[in-house]
Amino acid sequence: MTVRKSQATLTADEKRAFTNALLELKRTGVYDRFVTTHNAFLRSDSDFGDRVGHRGPSFLPWHRRFLLDFEAELQKVDPKVALPYWDWTVDRTPASSLWAPDFMGGTGRPQDGQVLDGPFAYSGRRWNITVGVDRYPFLRRSLGAGGAQLPTKAEVNAVLDMPEYDAAPWNSSSGGFRNHLEGWRGAGLHNRVHVWVGGHMLTAASPNDPVFWMHHAFVDMLWAEWQRRHPKSPYLPAAATPNVVDLRRPMRPWNNVTPADMLDHRRFYTFDTEGAAPRRP
Hints:
3% strand, di-copper center containing domain from catechol oxidase, 7 helices, 33% helix, 281 residues, 2 strands
């Protein structure tokens, strides 16, 4: 069984194995296929049309399956690798070990956001951006630019206390847990982290930055915690609803994967919560 650990608890060998697997997927072109998929779905998802990966109820199960597929590719390279999660309520500054030269590398330089250190720096010629949003071939970041702040534990707990998964009109204006976690309402949790990292994380091609996977692994962990706190609160909508993915409807790009298939993460992996924000009873 795969165990996902906090990035803050990874050993030097575990960090090296993870970054080496990422670099190998980049070398073979597998990595950029995932960037292309995410880019296409975020650009096509709409409040007033079909919404599959974003802006609707299937945001969480869609990304759970997306991460599972990516993790499987990492494990083809190294069976011992699992996706770490980044608890941004704890590791909240550019001085976090997450951004050290032996892991993700740090923020970008002021003039163009280019990341200059770490395994994904352009100077190493192993992390060229090919699914582009601009003319730059290098990874870009601007950690905490403009005074941006990462979400707090209190803000997260307020969202985890929401009893209903989602609500009509099932888009970015909805009430409910999913939309507040995705970040279109309230404290802006998931979206705010993308803004704080900046650079490629601000774009539809956000998986160009490898921290994308650790951010979404933590979002997925928060969904699992919400399910634990609210065991009688189901995925909604359960019945067929225009433009959104109901409980039993397949999620593109998969032909036979529904939200119902993704509700229990324990079928696929568990979380090591050492070093994570404490859970409530």
